[in-house]
Amino acid sequence: MSLSPKPGVMEIEAYVPGRSQAAGAARVYKLSSNESPFGASPNAIAAYEAAERTLGVYPEGTARILRDAIATHYGLAADRIVCGNGSDEILTLLANSYVRPGEEVLFSAHSFSLYRIVTLANSGVPVEVPTPNLALNVDDMIARIGPKTRLVYIANPNNPTATYVSASEMRRLHRALPDSALLVIDAAYSEYVRRNDYEAGIELVSTSTNVVMTRTFSKVYGLAGIRVGWGYCPKGVAEVLHRVRAPFNVNIAAQHAAVAALHDIAHVEKALQHNDLWRSRMTDEIRALGLRVDDSVANFVLIHFPETPGKRADDADRFLMSRGVIMRGCRSYDLPQCLRLTIGSEEANLAALGAIREFMASR
Ligand SMILES: Cc1ncc(COP(=O)(O)O)c(C=O)c1O
Fold first, then answer.
1. Rounded to 5, what percent of the chain is helix, strand, coil?
2. d(Cα 111, Cα 158) in Å, to the nearest integer?
3. Is the CB of 229 under 6 A from ligand 1?
4. Using the 8-state DSSP alphabet, how is residue 294 labeled?
């Protein structure tokens, strides 16, 4: 018998990351990966550098210093927190631990592509719930729950649509789920949401046996490069994840930097205020150019381009790249008519606005 991967693996289309280079442009603005324009807190950078003294020694295996800091910060039990090499790792470990071949994993159309990847990697069956209005309708998701449902991934807010599911709708979805299935709330962008009817998921995890919330240090904390994320889990799920994760999955420099980032509240607040201001300004100004921009609760906006030849998203993308503005094409999210724009620094935002204005005015 020849060597072959598990069923499903060859159906995976490899993850397409945001681009980072624009050939020929004098100045490049990378607005393609939802990174923070403020980068990491200076305290996090100092903690990272200080960790160089311990590079030769294995870290404590369970990322205890980071779990303790997160537990104190949010008022959670440290033994229900599992840290990962990015929240990607936690999302992946959940599928690795719970999805058996042929079991179904639900997620919405136009959502984070990792959900499909980890489902297929475990020979599971991806069940994509259509979202014709882009925002997830919980009833449509409930209608797909069946005896083979094992996992439900909800990005809340969702990437790339920047929409969200309210706390009461999330509870309703959870109530419709059997105890044998796990609801995974991927709250990577939760810090950016300013809505009274939104909850990241802590309460739901605390009061159930089959809900996990994942969080990341890659976005508002500006630590995407060193890969730190975490999950808040029912105790039994945390114990499972600790069994299957790699023994030292979060490196020591990342742990120290993340603890310092968590404690630098002023740095986070500055990033959030900037995001509030520019999210609404970018939305208004791009709409004023005649383009559809959906209401966003995150640190990015989804821009819809028309079907008119010369004015399509691909045309816009080429034009913007020539001006050094790198956005995220949404073909891999099945939204070929859209580009996703991360809220950047003031300079980057103005460059993006100027380039879009120039594109729309060009013939
Ligand atoms: C919805 C969503 N979940 C999770 C992640 C992964 O984040 P991390 O850097 O923590 O792996 C991203 C990153 O873009 C995301 O958009």
1. 40, 15, 45
2. 6
3. yes
4. -
Distance CA 362, CA 357 (A): 9
**What are the residues whose beta carbons fall under 8 Å from the beta carbon of 23, sequence distance 6 or more?**
321
Span 314-324, mean pLDDT?
96
Q: CB of 149 closer than 6 A to ligand 1?
A: no
Question: Which of 93, 101, 141 has the alpha carbon at shortest distance from 120?
Answer: 101
237 to 182, 199, 244, 286: CA distances (angstroms): 10, 21, 11, 44
Q: How does DSSP assign 162-206, residue by residue?
A: -----HHHHHHHHHTS-TTSEEEEE-TTGGG---TT---SHHHHH
Close Cβ partners of 1 (under 8 Å, ≥ 6 residues apart): none
* Dist. CA 10–CA 330, nearest whole Å: 22
Ligand 1 pocket, 224 CB below 6 A?
A: yes
Kindly state if the Cβ of 159 falls inside 6 Å of ligand 1. Answer: yes
Residue pLDDT, tens place only, 79-124? 999 999 999 999 999 999 999 999 999 999 999 999 999 999 999 9
**3-class secondary structure for 213-226?**
EEEECCCCCCCHHH
The count of C-alpha atoms lying within 13 angstroms of the C-alpha of 289, restricted to the half-sphere facing its C-beta, is: 23
What is d(CA 129, CA 143) in angstroms, rounded to the nearest whole number?
9
Taking the CA atoms of 120, 121, 124 and 127 in sequence, report the sign of the dihedral they define: negative
CB of residue 112 inside a 6 A radius of ligand 1: yes
Residue-wise pLDDT for 228-271, tens only, equals: 999 999 999 999 999 999 999 999 999 999 999 999 999 999 99
| Mean pLDDT score of the chain | 96
Q: List 293's β-bridge partners, or say none.
A: 303
Contact present, 87 and 97 (Cβ < 8 Å): no
Q: What is the DSSP string of 307-328?
A: SSTTSSHHHHHHHHHHTTEE-E
Ligand 1 mutation target, pool 30, 219, 228, 333, most atoms within 8 A of CB = 219
pTM over 0.70: yes
Distance (angstroms) between ligand 1 centre and the Cα of 152 equals: 16
The DSSP letter of residue 144 is H
Q: Is 124 in the pocket of ligand 1 (CB under 6 A)?
A: no
